[in-house]
From TrEMBL:
Pfam families: DTC (PF18102), zf-RING_2 (PF13639). Residues 64-102 form the RING-type domain. Its EC number is 2.3.2.27. It is an enzyme of class 2 (transferase). It is found in: Cytoplasm. Keywords: Cytoplasm, Metal-binding, Transferase, Zinc, Zinc-finger. InterPro entries: Deltex_C, Deltex_C_sf, Deltex_fam, Znf_RING, Znf_RING/FYVE/PHD, Znf_RING_CS. The lineage of its organism: Eukaryota, Metazoa, Spiralia, Lophotrochozoa, Mollusca. This is E3 ubiquitin-protein ligase. Residues 1-57 are annotated as: Disordered. Residues 1-26 have a biased composition (Polar residues). Pathway: Protein modification; protein ubiquitination. It comes from Tegillarca granosa.
Length: 260
């Protein structure tokens, strides 16, 4: 039994820690529209912050939610203002760069998606119910078979690749989702290696908690449209991995190739 791992890379290097990456408990892969039976990532084993009201009195306020002792070398996170011991929060951020109390993400989260390719193409000949005035965006992914690395559940064993297509409406919000998926793909977050929820087959490239519509119709039960809240949901799933519109820059402007 080996641990799989994801690398959580700090972008903003808030604490000037040395090694930015570390391992993480393996996460069970999931398929298109199944919701996870457990969170896609687990918090540190000792983060009972939710049972500890932070502002009740000074005594509580001086305790570190990670080690439950008095805070030493107090370090305040810049966005959410929660405070911890410097050593405690440095350890936490090697594991995952987010606040263990409120979940605010700091820096880039890097996944363990294997080598593959992504191609995004618009196609005005097709339409999605609910977005009838727009064409579609086809997001194609391709992964060859390969050998699992140290960041995967069974290092040294082979995994089987896959080809997948996700569909988005070619509306302004759909274009934003497509660009964010590209950011997530480049951070190795869209797929992982593990057991497929739909086939039960282990050691394959499988979805990693960012849901895709693999059909333009058939409804949610067939991983398709119409599904009026899908775009908002996938934006939330991307944000949970630290991918938001703040990450969009000119480099993703022209990644949606027009078809013929
Ligand atoms: Zn502490
Ligand atoms: Zn916080």
């Amino acid at each position: 039994m080996s641990m799989s791992s994801n690398n959580w890379t700090q972008q903003s290097n808030i604490f000037n820690t040395g090694n930015p990456s570390s391992t993480q408990q393996g996460e069970e892969p999931m398929e298109t529209e199944d919701y996870p039976s457990h969170p896609s990532f687990v918090m540190g084993p000792s983060t009972p912050a939710e049972i500890k009201p932070p502002d009740q009195d000074n005594k509580v306020d001086d305790d570190c939610a990670i080690c439950l002792s008095d805070i030493t070398n107090k370090t305040e996170l810049p966005r959410c203002s929660h405070s911890f011991c410097r050593d405690c929060i440095e350890q936490q951020f090697k594991y995952k760069p987010s606040c263990p109390i409120c979940g605010t993400v700091y820096g880039k989260i890097q996944g363990n998606q294997p080598a593959g390719s992504m191609y995004i193409q618009s196609d005005s000949r097709y339409h999605i119910k609910g977005y009838d005035q727009y064409g579609i965006i086809r997001v194609s992914y391709s992964f060859y078979d390969g050998i699992q690395g140290p960041e995967h559940p069974h290092p040294g064993q082979s995994y089987s690749g896959t080809n997948r297509i996700g569909y988005l409406p070619d509306c302004p919000q759909g274009r934003i989702v497509a660009r964010l998926l590209k950011v997530a793909f480049d951070r190795r977050l869209v797929f992982t290696v593990g057991r497929s929820r739909t086939t039960g087959i282990d050691n394959c490239v499988t979805w990693n908690d960012i849901h895709h519509k693999t059909s333009i119709d058939g409804g949610p039960e067939n991983f398709g449209y119409p599904d009026p809240t899908y775009l908002n949901r996938v934006l939330e799933e991307l944000a949970a991995k630290g991918v938001t519109e703040a990450d969009l820059d000119d480099t993703t402007l022209n990644i949606i190739h027009p078809s013929r």
